[in-house]
């Protein structure tokens, strides 16, 4: 069982395609599967040049944060940055510029793996935020995967880092995903009405997809009829 985010999802998909017998399931967050477009290639090239000449400057950090986080958590002149974005900004300051430079070069030189997606036979669960710049790529990947073994969850008002921005939106889809492997255990709720974990104390609206920011799409099934 493997889980990866953006470039990590790309690497794990390559691994699952090459070693199909070693991977029983993939959980991919804002995955990549196509070669970079011209706009993305130029964007990465500009960031690489900024990093080479000026180091980890404020403009470069803003560009990286804009790629991975939605505007809701990045803040504005009136709304402060969220704790997650502030922590990531601090981590970027601690990273060596050469490592970030190599990462940008690697992601800019990735190849298209669309043709190999049909060969995947492991179950695949894909998460993507509707504000992610990789949203269209996740939709493309879902369309190329075998629908019998794959599912897509789009998270509203979220960027690429669904794991950081809205991890609660991943709970129920992952629970059902693991049920297919027999890994699910029902929660031992107390029957006491005083218990905060009692089912009677949990409003059904809180467990609805809309309240968790999920946008679920119906699955169309084609059936061929023989006359």
TrEMBL record:
What's the gene?
Answer: LOC115706032
* PANTHER family, sorted: N-MYC DOWNSTREAM REGULATED (PTHR11034)
Which residues lie in coiled coils?
none
Any Pfam family from its record, for instance, is: Ndr
Quote the protein name from its UniProt record.
Answer: Pollen-specific protein SF21
Q: Which family does it belong to?
A: Belongs to the NDRG family.
Q: Which Gene3D superfamilies match?
A: alpha/beta hydrolase
Q: To which species is this protein native?
A: Cannabis sativa (Hemp)
Please indicate which superkingdom the organism of origin belongs to. Answer: Eukaryota
**InterPro entries per the UniProt record, alphabetical:** AB_hydrolase_fold, NDRG
